[in-house]
Design goal:
globular
Length: 175
């Protein structure tokens, strides 16, 4: 019994000495890769991961320096089954935004709420604005939200979970 009391005293003393996390403390660094891609990759490196089957639709953002690519299964030879689309943004030839829109099947297995809980365990509490959940560190922004996708018959719109990873300071979301 005395050994147990001593062990409890040591544990309590340790907890009292440990400083609480301050709000101005450095946030947990966010991983800078998603679905096999890393922020900062060049287009040719992205095309090694997702080889083109057809040319990817792209356009340059008006007034901005971001070139956006929309990649779907039909445009790439290798494409994950749980993703409907990838939206990629390049600035000065480097990947600065990666957005993965997940499939209906993935949404049933892993709802948005589960994704938020899993990410909260890694990065702490997110900031919430409407139904968009955001984590930030000094260099990276991670967002989780529902993306509207047309239903299979095209008669309705479905909400699919989406994750967006971007370099902090660039436009927050690729549309």
């Amino acid at each position: 019994m005395p050994g147990t009391v001593r062990a409890l005293a040591v544990i309590l003393a340790t907890l009292v000495v440990l400083p609480a996390r301050a709000d101005d403390e450095e946030p947990v660094p966010i991983q800078r890769y998603l679905e096999g891609l890393r922020l900062g990759d060049y287009l040719r490196e992205v095309q090694l991961v997702y080889p083109q089957q057809r040319e990817w639709p792209s356009f340059r953002e008006p007034g901005g320096r971001i070139t956006k690519y929309h990649v779907e299964r039909a445009y790439a030879r290798n494409f994950p089954w749980d993703i409907d689309a990838l939206r990629l943004g390049f600035k000065w030839g480097r990947l600065v935004v990666i957005q993965a829109v997940y499939s209906e099947r993935y949404a049933r297995e892993t709802p948005l709420e589960k994704m938020i809980v899993d990410l909260s365990l890694m990065y702490g509490e997110p900031q919430r604005r409407g139904m968009v959940y955001t984590w930030r560190d000094r260099k990276t922004v991670l967002k989780v939200f529902h993306e509207e996708q047309p239903s299979a018959d095209g008669a309705a719109v479905e909400l699919h979970p989406s994750i967006e990873l971007s370099v902090r300071g660039v436009r927050e979301r690729v549309d």
